[in-house]
Amino acid sequence: MARVVGLGPDALRRSNLSTVLRLLHGEGRATRAELTALTGLNRSTVAALVRELNDHGLVTEGDAVATGAPGRPSPMVSVRTDRVAVLAVDIKVDSIAVATMTLGGTRLGQQRVRRDRHDTTVDATLDVLEELARDSLDALPRRQRLIGIGIAVAGLVRHPDGMVDLGPNLGWSQVPIGELLKARLRRRVPVTVGNDGDTGALAERVHGAGRGVEHLIYLSGEVGVGGGIISSGRPLTGSMGYAGEVGHVTIDADGDRCGCGNTGCWELLIGERAVLRATGRLGDGGQDALTEMLLAAGDGEPEARRGLAEIGRWTGIGLASLVNLFDPQRIVLGGLHAELHPFLVDAATSELRSRSLVATRSGAEIVPAAFGIDSSLVGAGEAALQPLLDDPTGTSAPAPSMPAHALG
User: Fold this and answer.
1) Rg of the chain over CA atoms, in angstroms?
2) Residues 194/150, Cβ–Cβ less than 8 Å
3) CA-CA distances (angstroms) from residue 104 to 126, 202, 404?
4) pLDDT tier for residue 64 given thresholds of 50, 70 and 90
5) Do residues 236 and 198 make contact, with C-beta atoms less than 8 angstroms apart?
6) What are the CA-CA distances from residue 11 to residues 5, 97, 390 (Å)?
7) In this structure, what are the phi and psi dihedrals at residue 191, rounded to the nearest 5 degrees?
8) Where are the domains positioned within the chain?
9) 20 to 30 A from 321, CA-CA: which of 30, 35, 279, 351?
10) Which tens digit of pLDDT belongs to each residue from 98-156?
11) What backbone torsions phi and psi does residue 87 show, to the nearest 5 degrees?
12) What are phi and psi for residue 176, nearest 5 degrees?
């Protein structure tokens, strides 16, 4: 990673601090020698940056470690997990989760509760969130400073103001969820709101199955299907933040009507209800039916295996278009589809290879998400940490919704 040029001394120093902290955040720890090699900065500059980050309580130095290279052993530098924290929130149709997180992607505590998918009103959601969030924040040590709140939500999130413009499967429209939660918690910290597909992609890119990958497609299913795109190491979010709504791409022009108002959406073919129907279950069976079906598929039930292969076929058909458009290095399946991965990957890969001009040449592979159902939760925390990672001195102004920062 090359040093940034063309900046004034203060801006250059902050940029270099950001570079070093981001590297340590992604790796957890590194020697000074490794930081020197990765940043392209000289040894004395790296030493000064590490000292300043230490002064801010963000990193700590341990004993020197022999690297095998000529010269003196190099001190090991690690992020501190006991000084700053963010509150991460994940709002799904079937569940709500809250976690406290800190540097290095460390989760200090986490709770996920199931809920009635027929009672997803804003007030009901806020009641659950407030209780979970207060419990999590009360459990933080006194010296752990809360610096932000990140929210992932299954819906269209408008970037300029963090408004949930539309959440079809939640029944939401024009909901300022960030401001509403902030008012409930009475915390004077910035709130970042992002679509669950975008935050899931962010988590997998920085700490998960897409770590080190510059071009990534993230696909995740629950009741609906969403996605996120990482291009050249940056989230591809569009002009207003609506990019990545892959579940509502038309795959079957003569298909059924979707809750979004369109017909033949991809989520009608690979979402939860489609999975249950294809495997011989009731489409509205919910999480209990999915759990039973996955156990049956693992035991080799023919109907379940055949149905999941059909879901894999439709998954591959949709992915073929995305791969032609974005030319990813890797495709990460999250949420429900991470659980389905062993049963659908062969059919999906076969369909993808036969239908995509790019897939046969790029070698893009389909892998399960490292964080499973929690990818969007981890990504919400990651998004809330971005202002600190951008400017460890604390002088940058945070955005109200998920920013398109560089992730490298």
Assistant:
1) 22
2) yes
3) 28, 14, 19
4) confident
5) no
6) 10, 37, 11
7) -120, 130
8) 9-79, 84-199+375-390, 212-369
9) 279
10) 999 999 999 999 999 999 888 899 999 999 999 999 999 999 988 899 999 999 999 99
11) -100, 125
12) -85, 65
